[in-house]
Design a protein that fits this description.
The complex is a heterodimer of chains A (about 110) and B (about 110). With about 110 residues, chain A is mostly beta strands. In chain A, about 0% of the residues lie in helices and about 60% in strands. By secondary structure, chain B is mainly β. Chain B is globular. The chains are: A mainly beta (about 110), B mainly beta (about 110).
Protein backbone atom coordinates (compact mmCIF):
# COMPACT_ATOMS: atom_id res chain seq x y z
CA UNK A 1 0.00 0.00 0.00
CA UNK A 2 1.45 3.32 -1.06
CA UNK A 3 1.75 5.97 1.63
CA UNK A 4 2.94 9.49 0.98
CA UNK A 5 4.31 11.68 3.75
CA UNK A 6 5.28 15.32 3.63
CA UNK A 7 7.47 17.18 6.07
CA UNK A 8 7.40 19.71 7.47
CA UNK A 9 3.65 20.10 7.91
CA UNK A 10 4.05 23.86 8.16
CA UNK A 11 6.82 26.30 7.46
CA UNK A 12 7.09 30.04 8.05
CA UNK A 13 10.08 31.90 6.61
CA UNK A 14 11.14 35.43 5.74
CA UNK A 15 11.16 36.52 2.15
CA UNK A 16 14.30 35.65 0.19
CA UNK A 17 15.09 32.33 1.80
CA UNK A 18 15.72 29.18 -0.20
CA UNK A 19 13.40 26.36 0.86
CA UNK A 20 13.27 22.59 0.66
CA UNK A 21 10.02 20.71 0.99
CA UNK A 22 10.17 16.96 1.41
CA UNK A 23 7.95 14.17 0.14
CA UNK A 24 8.45 10.49 0.99
CA UNK A 25 6.69 7.48 -0.46
CA UNK A 26 6.77 3.88 0.70
CA UNK A 27 6.50 2.04 -2.63
CA UNK A 28 9.35 2.99 -4.95
CA UNK A 29 7.67 1.48 -8.03
CA UNK A 30 6.10 4.76 -8.99
CA UNK A 31 5.08 5.87 -12.46
CA UNK A 32 5.60 9.56 -11.85
CA UNK A 33 5.38 12.15 -9.10
CA UNK A 34 3.62 15.48 -9.29
CA UNK A 35 3.88 18.59 -7.13
CA UNK A 36 0.87 20.82 -6.71
CA UNK A 37 0.13 24.11 -5.09
CA UNK A 38 -3.16 24.93 -3.41
CA UNK A 39 -4.12 28.45 -2.48
CA UNK A 40 -6.81 28.98 0.19
CA UNK A 41 -10.25 28.40 -1.28
CA UNK A 42 -8.79 27.51 -4.65
CA UNK A 43 -8.11 24.35 -6.61
CA UNK A 44 -4.86 22.55 -7.21
CA UNK A 45 -2.32 24.03 -9.57
CA UNK A 46 0.19 21.64 -11.06
CA UNK A 47 3.75 22.84 -10.56
CA UNK A 48 6.02 20.08 -11.77
CA UNK A 49 5.66 16.52 -13.03
CA UNK A 50 8.59 14.13 -12.83
CA UNK A 51 8.40 10.89 -14.75
CA UNK A 52 9.94 7.82 -13.12
CA UNK A 53 12.82 7.89 -15.61
CA UNK A 54 13.73 11.47 -14.71
CA UNK A 55 15.79 12.77 -11.82
CA UNK A 56 14.57 16.35 -11.72
CA UNK A 57 12.41 19.01 -13.30
CA UNK A 58 12.78 22.77 -13.17
CA UNK A 59 10.35 25.61 -13.68
CA UNK A 60 11.49 29.11 -12.87
CA UNK A 61 12.45 29.28 -9.21
CA UNK A 62 11.18 25.75 -8.59
CA UNK A 63 13.19 22.58 -8.85
CA UNK A 64 11.85 19.13 -8.02
CA UNK A 65 14.06 16.09 -7.67
CA UNK A 66 13.14 12.43 -7.54
CA UNK A 67 15.09 9.57 -5.96
CA UNK A 68 13.04 6.43 -6.44
CA UNK A 69 15.48 4.15 -4.66
CA UNK A 70 15.18 6.09 -1.43
CA UNK A 71 11.48 6.87 -1.92
CA UNK A 72 11.94 10.62 -1.80
CA UNK A 73 11.21 13.76 -3.74
CA UNK A 74 12.13 17.29 -2.81
CA UNK A 75 10.77 20.59 -4.00
CA UNK A 76 13.29 23.38 -3.88
CA UNK A 77 12.04 26.97 -3.94
CA UNK A 78 14.69 29.58 -4.58
CA UNK A 79 14.49 33.15 -3.29
CA UNK A 80 11.05 32.72 -1.75
CA UNK A 81 8.45 35.47 -2.09
CA UNK A 82 5.24 36.24 -0.18
CA UNK A 83 3.31 35.12 -3.26
CA UNK A 84 4.71 31.63 -2.73
CA UNK A 85 2.58 31.27 0.39
CA UNK A 86 0.27 28.30 -0.15
CA UNK A 87 -0.07 24.61 0.64
CA UNK A 88 2.24 22.40 -1.38
CA UNK A 89 1.19 18.85 -2.12
CA UNK A 90 2.99 15.94 -3.68
CA UNK A 91 1.15 13.01 -5.22
CA UNK A 92 1.96 9.85 -7.09
CA UNK A 93 -0.37 7.51 -8.99
CA UNK A 94 -0.91 3.88 -8.16
CA UNK A 95 -0.92 1.39 -11.01
CA UNK A 96 -4.62 2.03 -11.43
CA UNK A 97 -3.85 5.66 -12.10
CA UNK A 98 -5.43 7.12 -8.98
CA UNK A 99 -3.31 9.67 -7.17
CA UNK A 100 -2.13 9.18 -3.63
CA UNK A 101 -1.60 12.53 -1.96
CA UNK A 102 0.55 13.60 0.92
CA UNK A 103 -0.96 15.74 3.65
CA UNK A 104 0.84 18.81 2.38
CA UNK A 105 3.20 21.46 3.63
CA UNK A 106 1.63 24.79 4.50
CA UNK A 107 4.11 27.51 3.59
CA UNK A 108 4.00 31.10 4.72
CA UNK A 109 6.55 33.59 3.41
CA UNK A 110 6.46 36.91 5.21
CA UNK A 111 7.91 40.21 3.95
CA UNK B 1 -7.08 25.29 -23.82
CA UNK B 2 -9.88 25.62 -21.28
CA UNK B 3 -9.14 24.02 -17.95
CA UNK B 4 -11.22 21.68 -15.82
CA UNK B 5 -14.40 23.44 -14.76
CA UNK B 6 -16.42 22.62 -11.69
CA UNK B 7 -19.69 24.00 -10.42
CA UNK B 8 -21.01 25.10 -8.17
CA UNK B 9 -17.96 26.52 -6.43
CA UNK B 10 -19.78 26.46 -3.12
CA UNK B 11 -22.86 24.65 -1.89
CA UNK B 12 -24.52 24.75 1.51
CA UNK B 13 -27.29 22.23 2.04
CA UNK B 14 -29.16 20.74 4.93
CA UNK B 15 -28.65 17.21 6.11
CA UNK B 16 -30.89 14.89 4.15
CA UNK B 17 -30.99 17.01 1.02
CA UNK B 18 -29.54 16.10 -2.35
CA UNK B 19 -26.67 17.86 -4.07
CA UNK B 20 -25.25 17.35 -7.54
CA UNK B 21 -21.76 18.47 -8.42
CA UNK B 22 -20.64 18.86 -12.01
CA UNK B 23 -17.27 18.62 -13.68
CA UNK B 24 -16.33 19.49 -17.24
CA UNK B 25 -12.92 18.03 -18.08
CA UNK B 26 -10.47 19.30 -20.63
CA UNK B 27 -11.72 18.42 -24.07
CA UNK B 28 -10.16 15.20 -25.30
CA UNK B 29 -9.15 13.93 -21.87
CA UNK B 30 -10.56 10.44 -21.57
CA UNK B 31 -9.58 10.11 -17.92
CA UNK B 32 -11.71 11.89 -15.35
CA UNK B 33 -11.28 11.61 -11.60
CA UNK B 34 -13.11 12.72 -8.50
CA UNK B 35 -11.26 13.42 -5.26
CA UNK B 36 -12.33 14.76 -1.91
CA UNK B 37 -10.65 16.57 0.95
CA UNK B 38 -12.41 16.59 4.26
CA UNK B 39 -11.31 18.91 7.05
CA UNK B 40 -7.82 18.17 8.29
CA UNK B 41 -7.28 15.13 6.10
CA UNK B 42 -5.37 14.48 2.91
CA UNK B 43 -7.01 14.53 -0.48
CA UNK B 44 -8.45 11.11 -1.24
CA UNK B 45 -9.47 9.41 -4.42
CA UNK B 46 -13.15 8.70 -5.02
CA UNK B 47 -13.38 7.28 -8.53
CA UNK B 48 -11.95 7.21 -12.02
CA UNK B 49 -13.72 7.25 -15.38
CA UNK B 50 -12.20 6.26 -18.68
CA UNK B 51 -14.55 7.83 -21.16
CA UNK B 52 -18.00 6.87 -19.90
CA UNK B 53 -16.91 3.75 -18.02
CA UNK B 54 -16.07 3.56 -14.35
CA UNK B 55 -12.52 2.24 -14.20
CA UNK B 56 -12.16 2.33 -10.44
CA UNK B 57 -14.72 3.38 -7.86
CA UNK B 58 -12.99 1.91 -4.85
CA UNK B 59 -12.84 5.27 -3.09
CA UNK B 60 -16.57 5.97 -3.07
CA UNK B 61 -17.57 6.18 0.61
CA UNK B 62 -20.97 4.51 0.38
CA UNK B 63 -24.05 4.11 -1.81
CA UNK B 64 -25.23 7.64 -1.08
CA UNK B 65 -22.70 8.76 -3.68
CA UNK B 66 -23.47 8.27 -7.37
CA UNK B 67 -21.20 9.37 -10.18
CA UNK B 68 -22.00 9.43 -13.87
CA UNK B 69 -20.24 10.52 -17.00
CA UNK B 70 -22.69 11.00 -19.81
CA UNK B 71 -21.26 10.22 -23.23
CA UNK B 72 -17.76 10.39 -21.89
CA UNK B 73 -17.87 14.17 -21.57
CA UNK B 74 -18.89 15.95 -18.38
CA UNK B 75 -19.42 14.12 -15.10
CA UNK B 76 -21.77 14.56 -12.19
CA UNK B 77 -21.41 13.45 -8.61
CA UNK B 78 -24.64 13.21 -6.68
CA UNK B 79 -24.87 12.88 -2.92
CA UNK B 80 -28.27 11.69 -1.75
CA UNK B 81 -29.12 12.07 1.07
CA UNK B 82 -26.28 14.26 2.30
CA UNK B 83 -24.84 13.74 5.77
CA UNK B 84 -22.75 16.06 7.92
CA UNK B 85 -19.58 14.03 7.31
CA UNK B 86 -19.89 14.63 3.57
CA UNK B 87 -18.73 18.21 4.05
CA UNK B 88 -15.46 18.96 2.34
CA UNK B 89 -13.97 20.08 -0.92
CA UNK B 90 -14.66 17.91 -3.94
CA UNK B 91 -12.10 18.10 -6.72
CA UNK B 92 -12.33 16.87 -10.26
CA UNK B 93 -9.31 16.21 -12.44
CA UNK B 94 -8.69 15.03 -15.96
CA UNK B 95 -5.67 13.66 -17.75
CA UNK B 96 -4.30 12.06 -20.85
CA UNK B 97 -2.86 8.61 -20.21
CA UNK B 98 0.64 8.87 -18.80
CA UNK B 99 0.56 12.63 -18.46
CA UNK B 100 0.00 14.89 -15.50
CA UNK B 101 -3.32 15.74 -14.00
CA UNK B 102 -5.20 19.01 -14.33
CA UNK B 103 -7.47 19.81 -11.44
CA UNK B 104 -10.52 22.00 -11.23
CA UNK B 105 -10.93 24.64 -8.57
CA UNK B 106 -13.17 22.36 -6.52
CA UNK B 107 -16.63 22.51 -5.00
CA UNK B 108 -16.77 23.34 -1.33
CA UNK B 109 -19.71 21.41 0.12
CA UNK B 110 -21.07 22.26 3.54
CA UNK B 111 -23.79 20.09 5.03
CA UNK B 112 -25.54 21.68 8.01
Amino acid sequence: KQEVTQIPAALSVPEGENLVLNCSFTDSAIYNLQWFRQDPGKGLTSLLLIQSSQREQTSGRLNASLDKSSGRSTLYIAASQPGDSATYLCATPLHTDKLIFGTGTRLQVFP
Amino acid sequence: EAGVTQFPSHSVIEKGQTVTLRCDPISGHDNLYWYRRVMGKEIKFLLHFVKESKQDESGMPNNRFLAERTGGTYSTLKVQPAELEDSGVYFCASSLQGRGYTFGSGTRLTVV
